[in-house]
Amino acid sequence: MEVLTDRPEDRLVPGARLYLEGTQDALTITEASPVPDGRGWWLTFREIPDRNSAERLRDVYLEIDVPDEPRRPGLWFFHELEGLAVRSASGEELGTVTEIYRAGGAEVFVVRGPRGELDVPGVRGIVTELAPERGEMIVDLDALALDARPVEDEDYVRPRDRRPKKQPKPPKPRPAAGAPGTGRGAGSKAGPSAATGPGDATASG
């Protein structure tokens, strides 16, 4: 499993439950250990008895409940950033953050708006201000033009695009019930959780 949390030793422990993205289908971890020569983790689940059964999890994001724990200033869960209005420094409306994924160790914001769908790297110099409390993100449009292209461009290939199709969200959020974890929205690969402020390359959760 590709790990997207920076605290796998806390999140991926026997007894913890992961959920198929957007569903109530739970998987209970029975064994967990880091891959010796890689960045991933080996996991076994009580509900997955063999390799064939595990095939249904290929390219599927897994989530856990949002933990009730202190958070460092300047960190947010991915779901707290989805829906932010995105504007240029001059005030041009660029759209809304529709989802977030990670590529090359940095978060990438998928923004849909008047210019189509853009991949906006969450790095210093492009995202100049990230203000969830105001519901907005400010980007440097000149820098963005160098690093983001409309997804509709037939020559464009999104880096490491392995995001599965979005699943319907459950009607009510699950309360944080003691399962150690990253916020809901984490993935198979084991879950993005909290994005950092502008300029930081790693997520926390």
Description of the molecule:
- The longest helix is centred in the C-terminal third of the chain and has 7 residues, at 141-147.
- This protein has 205 residues and is mainly β.
- Helices cover 9% and strands 31% of the residues.
- The relative contact order is 0.26.
- Residues 159-205 have low confidence and may be disordered.
- The strands form 3 sheets. A 6-stranded mixed sheet has the order 9-8-7-6-11-10. Strands 3-2-1-4 form a 4-stranded antiparallel sheet, with no helix packed on it. A two-stranded antiparallel sheet has the order 5-12.
- It is built from 4 helices and 12 strands, in the order αβββαββαββββββαβ.
Shape: elongated
Q: Provide the helix percentage.
A: under 10%
Q: Give the helix/strand class.
A: mainly beta
Strands side by side in the biggest sheet: 9-8-7-6-11-10
Strand tally: 12
**Average pLDDT reading:** 75
The helix count comes to 4
Secondary-structure map:
Layout: H1 8-11, E1 17-20, E2 26-34, E3 41-45, H2 51-54, E4 62-63, E5 75-77, H3 78-81, E6 85-88, E7 93-103, E8 106-113, E9 116-121, E10 127-131, E11 136-139, H4 141-147, E12 194-196
Parallel strand pairs: 6-11
Antiparallel strand pairs: 1-2, 1-4, 2-3, 5-12, 6-7, 7-8, 8-9, 10-11
